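Example S7 (structure tokens).
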């Protein structure tokens, strides 16, 4: 509003100054036209008789139009004769005009506000423009002829001022109301976003702004919506993780509780105690393993997992993992078959890589029946002008149905809960919690690699890990 007011004021001043110049120019032109007619008239016979009067000539050429006045003065400023309107103080007026002319001889017209004696209205004040013409005969100055005519200047300028003032004020009012309306319209989506943001709480992340349109604010709102969707998914994952983790921990605790309660409820034989202790041992091992896996995942999520990268021969690491897991294979009567193991240099964390390979082999052992085979081999492969290590762990187990394949890397995802949660009292086989493959996927990812799984039901499963080779 302030800027607009300044611009309007500057604009109005400009218009006022140029218009008042134009008006003045027109007024001078008019006066000179009158003077020309007057001179023609003075050279006519009428002037010679000194009987100048408005009625002496046809009206359109009359030198004296209504309101005009002519004063003839001698060289000393003495009024010789006057025609037309009667100024109240003619001598004073002549004096003022002659001194104004003496001071500023270049001015073409002089503007004065003079009192005029009007027959009907008495003495009234009005604005006049005067032209002073020297009267020269035979090269000698005889006096001056003063022509006065009512000035339209002030009237015009007053009207112009009012027009400019009203126009500017009107524009300011329109701009103010329009600005309010526009600002309100423009701010409405922002208010909507603010209100929605206020109502969205941690427990209700399902709300969306859904602002229609394609402008910047709609884009902002849709970015906000996308962010909410991501937050909601993250919160959902966290909630599910917490629920799954507590569920997983509760199961072994319940089993131990029941077993301990059962043996303590009466007198038992030493075989029964031994059996109960075996169950407690298996369940506590399971719990310890689960807690370890949970801690690993928590560290990975928090970005606190410390990896010690070093140059390694990947086949060395694979052999270490195989050695670590072979007692389990023997126990389960599974044949571990080693394929090619060429020297392949990569940069990675030995501990984590051993864990990754062990998890894959362990799954092969766990889910294949007795007498089956798990094959491990390493190869060098070439892809997109780059060399990679390819680790393939394949088994001849039950395979994974296509519906489950895309989920097996999810946390706590188990295909057959009964099969993987083996609480058989005699079994010391490792039981699954559904975290193994998500840890594998994370380790592969931090090493800049990829993992793929192909499986056919009742034929077997193949996990292939590719890791970039060290140049
Ligand atoms: P778990 O700790 O239960 O083994 P994983 O994340 O390692 O969890 O595996 C997820 C699920 O994928 C398992 O419950 C199992 O059903 C399936 N799975 C993994 N590896 C194999 C495999 N080699 N053969 C058949 N099923 C497998």
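Recovered sequence:
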């Amino acid at each position: 509003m302030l800027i607009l007011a300044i611009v309007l004021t500057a604009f109005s001043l400009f218009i006022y100054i140029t218009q008042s110049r134009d008006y003045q120019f027109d007024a001078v032109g008019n006066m000179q036209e009158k003077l020309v007619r007057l001179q023609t008239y003075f050279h006519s016979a009428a002037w010679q008789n000194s009987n100048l009067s408005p009625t002496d000539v046809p009206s359109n050429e009359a030198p004296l139009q209504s309101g005009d006045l002519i004063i003839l003065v001698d060289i000393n400023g003495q009024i010789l004769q006057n025609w037309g309107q009667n100024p109240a103080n003619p001598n004073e007026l002549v004096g003022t005009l002659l001194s104004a002319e003496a001071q500023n001889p270049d001015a073409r017209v002089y503007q004065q506000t003079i009192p005029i004696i009007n027959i009907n209205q008495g003495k009234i004040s009005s604005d006049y423009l005067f032209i002073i013409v020297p009267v020269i005969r035979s090269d000698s100055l005889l006096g001056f002829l003063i022509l006065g005519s009512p000035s339209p200047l002030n009237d015009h300028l007053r009207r112009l001022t009012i027009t400019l003032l009203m126009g500017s004020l009107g524009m300011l009012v329109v701009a103010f109301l329009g600005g309010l309306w526009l600002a309100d319209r423009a701010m409405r989506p922002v208010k909507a976003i603010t209100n929605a943001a206020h109502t969205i709480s941690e427990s209700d992340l399902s709300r969306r702004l859904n602002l229609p349109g394609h402008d910047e604010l709609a884009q902002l709102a849709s970015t906000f919506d996308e962010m909410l969707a991501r937050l909601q998914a993250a919160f959902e994952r966290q909630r599910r993780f917490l629920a799954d983790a507590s569920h997983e921990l509760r199961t072994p605790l319940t089993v131990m509780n029941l077993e301990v309660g059962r043996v303590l409820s009466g007198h038992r034989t030493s075989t029964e105690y031994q059996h109960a202790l075996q169950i407690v041992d298996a369940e506590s091992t399971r719990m310890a393993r689960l807690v370890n896996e949970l801690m690993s995942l928590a560290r990975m999520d928090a970005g606190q997992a410390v990896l010690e990268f070093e140059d390694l021969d990947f086949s060395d690491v694979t052999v270490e993992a195989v050695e670590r897991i072979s007692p389990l294979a023997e126990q389960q009567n599974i044949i571990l078959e080693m394929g090619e193991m060429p020297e392949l240099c990569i940069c990675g964390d030995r501990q984590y890589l051993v864990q990754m390979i062990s998890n894959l082999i362990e799954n092969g052992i766990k889910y294949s029946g007795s007498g089956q085979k798990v094959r491990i081999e390493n190869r060098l492969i070439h892809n997109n002008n780059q060399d990679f290590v390819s680790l393939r762990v394949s088994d001849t187990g039950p395979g994974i149905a296509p519906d489950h394949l895309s989920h097996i890397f999810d946390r706590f995802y188990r295909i057959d809960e009964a099969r993987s949660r083996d609480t058989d009292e005699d079994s010391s086989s490792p039981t699954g919690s559904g975290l193994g493959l998500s840890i594998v996927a994370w380790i592969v990812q931090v090493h800049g690699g990829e993992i793929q799984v192909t499986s056919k039901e009742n034929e077997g499963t193949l996990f292939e890990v590719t890791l970039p080779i060290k140049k």
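Notes on this example. The chain has three domains: 2-158, 200-304, 306-468.
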